[in-house]
Amino acid sequence: MPSGSAKTARSLQRSEFPFRANSGGTGKPRYERHRSHGPVFRPGNPILESGIYEVIHDNAHRSAHEVVLISRDSFPTCDTCLERVRFRLVRTAPYIFQDVDFEESE
Question: Distance between CA atoms of 91 and 38, rounded to whole angstroms?
Protein backbone atom coordinates (compact mmCIF):
# COMPACT_ATOMS: atom_id res chain seq x y z
CA MET A 1 0.00 0.00 0.00
CA PRO A 2 1.49 3.41 -0.89
CA SER A 3 2.26 5.66 2.06
CA GLY A 4 -0.44 8.18 0.99
CA SER A 5 -3.09 5.46 1.22
CA ALA A 6 -1.92 4.40 4.68
CA LYS A 7 -2.11 7.98 5.88
CA THR A 8 -5.67 8.31 4.53
CA ALA A 9 -6.70 5.07 6.26
CA ARG A 10 -5.26 6.32 9.58
CA SER A 11 -7.10 9.62 9.18
CA LEU A 12 -10.37 7.83 8.53
CA GLN A 13 -9.90 5.63 11.59
CA ARG A 14 -9.31 8.65 13.79
CA SER A 15 -12.41 10.43 12.52
CA GLU A 16 -14.56 7.40 13.26
CA PHE A 17 -13.85 7.72 17.00
CA PRO A 18 -15.04 11.18 18.11
CA PHE A 19 -14.78 10.32 21.81
CA ARG A 20 -11.06 9.57 21.87
CA ALA A 21 -9.35 11.38 24.67
CA ASN A 22 -7.31 13.72 22.51
CA SER A 23 -7.55 17.41 22.95
CA GLY A 24 -7.96 18.60 19.37
CA GLY A 25 -6.15 21.76 20.45
CA THR A 26 -8.55 22.77 23.25
CA GLY A 27 -6.68 21.23 26.14
CA LYS A 28 -9.71 19.11 27.06
CA PRO A 29 -10.52 15.60 25.83
CA ARG A 30 -13.24 15.63 23.17
CA TYR A 31 -15.71 13.82 25.41
CA GLU A 32 -15.33 16.54 28.08
CA ARG A 33 -15.92 19.56 25.82
CA HIS A 34 -19.26 21.25 26.30
CA ARG A 35 -21.50 21.18 23.29
CA SER A 36 -22.47 24.65 22.14
CA HIS A 37 -25.71 23.81 20.37
CA GLY A 38 -29.23 23.14 21.56
CA PRO A 39 -31.22 24.40 24.49
CA VAL A 40 -29.96 24.15 28.06
CA PHE A 41 -32.31 22.75 30.70
CA ARG A 42 -32.40 23.51 34.42
CA PRO A 43 -33.37 21.38 37.42
CA GLY A 44 -37.12 21.27 37.88
CA ASN A 45 -37.87 21.68 34.15
CA PRO A 46 -39.96 18.83 32.76
CA ILE A 47 -38.07 16.33 30.59
CA LEU A 48 -39.93 16.40 27.28
CA GLU A 49 -37.83 13.81 25.43
CA SER A 50 -36.19 10.66 26.75
CA GLY A 51 -32.59 10.40 25.74
CA ILE A 52 -28.94 10.93 26.52
CA TYR A 53 -28.17 14.29 28.13
CA GLU A 54 -24.89 16.00 28.86
CA VAL A 55 -24.66 17.16 32.48
CA ILE A 56 -22.72 20.40 32.99
CA HIS A 57 -21.83 21.11 36.61
CA ASP A 58 -21.32 24.56 38.15
CA ASN A 59 -17.72 25.62 38.76
CA ALA A 60 -16.58 22.40 37.10
CA HIS A 61 -16.60 20.50 40.39
CA ARG A 62 -17.03 17.49 38.11
CA SER A 63 -16.27 17.00 34.43
CA ALA A 64 -19.20 17.04 32.04
CA HIS A 65 -20.72 13.58 31.68
CA GLU A 66 -23.64 11.90 29.99
CA VAL A 67 -26.72 10.35 31.56
CA VAL A 68 -30.00 8.82 30.42
CA LEU A 69 -33.12 10.78 31.41
CA ILE A 70 -36.72 9.72 30.89
CA SER A 71 -39.58 11.92 29.70
CA ARG A 72 -42.38 12.63 32.17
CA ASP A 73 -39.75 13.21 34.91
CA SER A 74 -38.10 16.50 35.86
CA PHE A 75 -34.45 17.42 35.55
CA PRO A 76 -32.82 16.71 38.93
CA THR A 77 -30.60 18.86 41.11
CA CYS A 78 -26.97 17.94 41.79
CA ASP A 79 -26.02 17.06 45.37
CA THR A 80 -23.06 19.47 45.13
CA CYS A 81 -23.99 22.34 42.81
CA LEU A 82 -27.72 22.11 43.55
CA GLU A 83 -29.82 24.24 41.16
CA ARG A 84 -26.77 25.43 39.20
CA VAL A 85 -26.37 22.17 37.25
CA ARG A 86 -27.44 22.28 33.57
CA PHE A 87 -28.48 19.65 31.02
CA ARG A 88 -28.21 19.55 27.24
CA LEU A 89 -29.78 16.93 24.98
CA VAL A 90 -27.16 14.90 23.12
CA ARG A 91 -29.44 12.37 21.43
CA THR A 92 -33.02 11.27 21.85
CA ALA A 93 -33.52 7.63 22.75
CA PRO A 94 -37.03 6.40 23.52
CA TYR A 95 -37.51 4.60 26.82
CA ILE A 96 -38.59 1.07 25.95
CA PHE A 97 -41.49 1.00 28.42
CA GLN A 98 -42.97 4.11 26.77
CA ASP A 99 -43.05 2.30 23.38
CA VAL A 100 -46.52 1.00 22.42
CA ASP A 101 -45.20 -2.55 22.02
CA PHE A 102 -43.56 -2.59 25.46
CA GLU A 103 -45.70 -0.30 27.64
CA GLU A 104 -46.01 -1.41 31.23
CA SER A 105 -49.60 -2.06 32.27
CA GLU A 106 -50.79 0.04 35.18
Answer: 11
